[in-house]
Amino acid sequence: MWSSYTLIGRTNFDRLIIVDQLFFSSITMSSDFDIAKTLDCKGESCPMPVIKSRSAVDDLNSGEVLEMISTDSGSISDINGWAKGTAGVELLEQEEGDDLYVHYIRKTS
Amino acid sequence: MSTDTPATSNNDAPSRAELAARIGELEEELASLKDDKTSDGNKMSIIATKGTLDMAYPPLILASTAAAFGYDVTVFHTFWGLDILHEEHSKDLKLSSVGNPNMPVPNVFGVLPGMDKITTSMMERRISDNDTATIEQLIETSLEMGVNFQACQMTIELMDYDEDAFFDDVETGVGAATAVEDMANADIQLLI
Questions:
Q1: Catalytic residue numbers of A?
Q2: What does pTM read for this prediction?
Q3: Rg for chain A (alpha carbons), in Å?
Q4: Rounded to an integer, what distance in angstroms lies between the CA atom of residue B106 and that of residue A66?
Q5: Contacts of A84 (CB under 8 A, 6+ apart)
Q6: At what angle do helices B57-69 and A75-85 cross, to 10 degrees?
Q7: Per the CB < 8 Å rule, is B38 touching A85?
């Protein structure tokens, strides 16, 4: 009974992984936002993702959206906190994937 | 609204309507103050007194990150903190395991000649293995973000440093009074 349960559980889990990879890697990565610039911060750790995001947003025009890709697990909290405490910046969405964290930030000033 | 004493006659007392209007104004002001985000116009003042490889990180990371928030940041370097601003020394900051129970090397080994170098290399390797920013990168980044670096004049003379030995944008000729004044005007004051 236990083995049939794990078989079913495993199948569903595999299905979930496939769905996750299908949907996450293709549809949600190129999200609904009109991306003005993509900033690759992969491999960089605190404080660089926040600092580079700041510089990148400074170069945008008002209303434009920055997509920042990071491998830093702390970036979810960091970018959230930074956007909350920084004037002229709005965090639209954050996505977590396989060691990948994608942030969408709009310049509002 | 006048701040006259209440000893005046009843004719001067504001009407309910006026009070209600004033409350409305105050509520609006309060709401807009709450909306005001942390950053712009705010100041952070850091006093950096340490110059070991590990202790060079906190002031630089906090300064550059606060600058990313829009803070106006000043870091006042004194004593060993001067080494962080010294063009040569900042490339060569050291770490010792002696007296440092956080490090795995027992003191009796840590005091042997050459051990500091080994401890420093261990730390440097960790830093590069983790893709952590180096001190040089952080200083460069901080300068780009507009952080103000100040080098304490008294300790420059005490350590017998040459003023030209510091990075170009470092302000010299400042002392404790400058630091105190800066801290008095800052929203966040830190001693590291």
A1: 46
A2: 0.77
A3: 17
A4: 49
A5: A91, B37, B38
A6: 50
A7: yes
